[in-house]
Amino acid sequence: MTNTERFWETKRLSELSPSEWERLCDGCGLCCLHKLRDEDTDTLMFTDVACRLLDLNTCQCASYGERFRKVPDCIALTPKMVHEIDWLPPSCAYRLMDEGKPLPDWHPLLTGNRESVHQAGISGRGRIISERYAGPLERHIVDWPGEDPLRPPASARPRPKKRARKAPRRV
Ligand code: SF4
Ligand code: SF4
To answer: Region entry Disordered: which residue ranges (predicted)?
Structure first.
């Protein structure tokens, strides 16, 4: 693989072509999980509840081309957003690039295999539920989407004291 092909090592997020931007996504599907915020402390909490359009097996959007029409609060990431938002998982390739970190060895760009993100246990496959069936989000708070897979699990996150609200979803 040439340096030109390893664009994630030579470019900034803002310099990526549309094709490179799409290829950078590892396909984990974790950004399509609902998030909650504590109304008092603004603490972010992850859930294992997926957007209704997420294919729970492939962890891909089932209607990517029409996602903004079908899910109005789906968000298209930009380099500026990647830098500012706090809800992308630590394993997210956009977040890693923004932080100047290398891609992990299981990333499909390095393995040449879109399944490698699932085989490494990084994606949501096998541990997420659709919002169609989940019921109240407050019953689905989990830590793992926010944990760095290269580090030991973090201690339990604080639970909401009052009714929490949804954080924005994205691509
Ligand atoms: S969390 Fe990041 S790498 Fe994973 S699917 Fe979402 S945008 Fe792609
Ligand atoms: S959050 Fe957006 S990209 Fe993800 S499954 Fe839902 S509509 Fe598709």
So the answer is: 144-171
Phi/psi at 66 (5° precision): -115, 15
Average pLDDT over residues 121-147: 97
Answer yes or no: are the C-beta atoms of 37 and 43 closer than 8 Å. yes
Protein residue whose Cα sits closest to atom 4 of ligand 2: 32
58, 71, 129: which to mutate for ligand 2, most atoms within 8 A of CB? 71
- How many Å apart are CA 55 and CA 160, to the nearest integer? 28
Q: How far is the CA of 27 from the centre of ligand 1 (A)?
A: 6
| Cut 0.90: pTM above it | no
Q: Which residues of 14-43 are buried (b: 16+ CB within 10 A; e: fewer)?
A: eebeeeeeeebbbbbbbbbbbbbbbeeeee
pLDDT, tens digit, for every residue of 53-100? 999 999 999 999 999 999 999 999 999 999 999 999 999 999 999 999
Q: Which of 8, 24, 92 to mutate to test the pocket of ligand 1 (most atoms within 8 A of CB)?
A: 92
Phi, psi of 146, rounded to the nearest 5 degrees:
-100, 5
Domain ranges of the chain: 7-166
